[in-house]
Amino acid sequence: MKKIQMVDLQGQYQQIKPQVDEALHSVLDSAYYVGGPDVKTFQSDLETYLGVKHVIPCANGTDALQIAMMGLGLEPGDEVITVDFTFAATVEVIALLRLTPVLVDVDAATFNMDIEALKKAITPKTKAIVPVHLFGQCANMDAVMEVAKAHNLFVIEDNAQAIGADYTSADGSVKKAGTIGNIGTTSFFPSKNLGCYGDGGAIFTNDDDLAHIIRGIVNHGMYKRYYHDVVGVNSRLDSMQAAVLRIKLPLLDGYCAARLKAATFYNDAFAASDKIITPVTSSYTTHVFHQYTLRIVGGVDRDALHQHLLDNNIPNAIYYPVPLHSQKAYVDARYKEEDFKVTNELIHTVISLPIHTELDEEQLTFITNTLLEFVSK
User: Fold this and answer.
1) What is the dihedral of CA 138, 143, 146, 147, to 10 degrees?
2) Are residues 303 and 366 both part of a single domain?
């Protein structure tokens, strides 16, 4: 059996090596390292794939979130609601812009934003909602958009983990994750379903005026060279990364299908165990399984399982071991532990298994058997 990887980027590269090598050498030959034709082609291709009017590439997913908030004109003191159970980048940019982060609990089944908690968190200072499409499936965007409309709030979708997922609204319309709110953002970090070979990110919107503002922000606030109309940042996707992404984008749906196949194998293997809760996919979204995250229950020691898997050369991870409301950087007297009951339980029970495009049945069988043996003791 070949070595099990949490994410097998080497194996994936070998499958597309000739195309990627040719694309990278083309960039080197052209010397268009920033803002070259590969960036423009990838931008156009991604707009077509997502069915969105504007894609603005940038340097990384964290920048994408920050730039989105800058583009909306949010001001210090404005409250932005997001979830407690997610990676820190989501709340990090809120704090960096001197906005006020407001954290809410998540749904126990989907790990996405709890809509009732969202409603309770709204105050006269609330200006935006940032739902996170965690682990690969969409939050309940119909409900989020309904709340936003009722209170005249902006919606920024943190789509760093769910690019490629489809969302079906109650009216039957289908849209790609990240294209439903005012703005969507994503990351092209190498381990993502659509990942480059370094850092990269993008912002999506159907709003022409907002797209214009954001295009200036990502380039030092310039629309004309050396004329700075808005306060901006330096956040551009380089041509080498765009070249890789241009090759990988047509393969994204296949990558997601491979992840789903592996997730289905896991689901079937664990179905009979009362100590394992497998991921729940909501009826309104597809799941692209950026992570395959279980809940370990019934008195099983999750941390001991984590170590047992490592001892058997099975990589695994705890996403996330500490909720944002307990992180030193974001501790706030406003937060009460009883408001985060689900998150406080998840941090002790979740564990994520290897999930990627190169997993084979021998590896999956070894992983599932090893895990089942432990929880069955």
Assistant:
1) -100
2) yes
Same domain for 227 and 277, yes or no, is no
Provide the domain limits for residue 339: 251-375
In a domain, 2, yes or no: no
Please choose, from the candidates 112, 119, 107, the residue with its C-alpha nearest in 3D space to the C-alpha of residue 139. 112
Same domain, yes or no: 313 and 264: yes
Domain match, 215 and 303 both: no
Sequential pLDDT tens for the chain (377 residues): 999 999 999 999 999 999 999 999 999 999 999 988 999 999 999 999 999 999 999 999 999 999 999 999 999 999 999 999 999 999 999 999 999 999 999 999 999 999 999 999 999 999 999 999 999 999 999 999 999 999 999 999 999 999 999 999 999 999 999 999 999 999 999 999 999 999 999 999 999 999 999 999 999 999 999 999 999 999 999 999 999 999 999 999 999 999 999 999 999 999 999 999 999 999 999 999 999 999 999 999 999 999 999 999 999 999 999 999 999 999 999 999 999 999 999 999 999 999 999 999 999 999 999 999 999 98
Q: What proportions of the chain, in percent to the nearest 5, are helix, strand and coil?
A: 45, 20, 40
Query: What's this model's pTM, rounded to 2 decimal places?
Result: 0.97
Residue 356 lies in a domain: yes
Whether 283 and 214 share a structural domain: no
Which of 186, 217, 250 is at the close of a domain? Answer: 250
Q: Quote the CA–CA distance of 338 and 344 in Å, as a whole number.
A: 9
Q: Which residues are 276's β-sheet partners?
A: 296
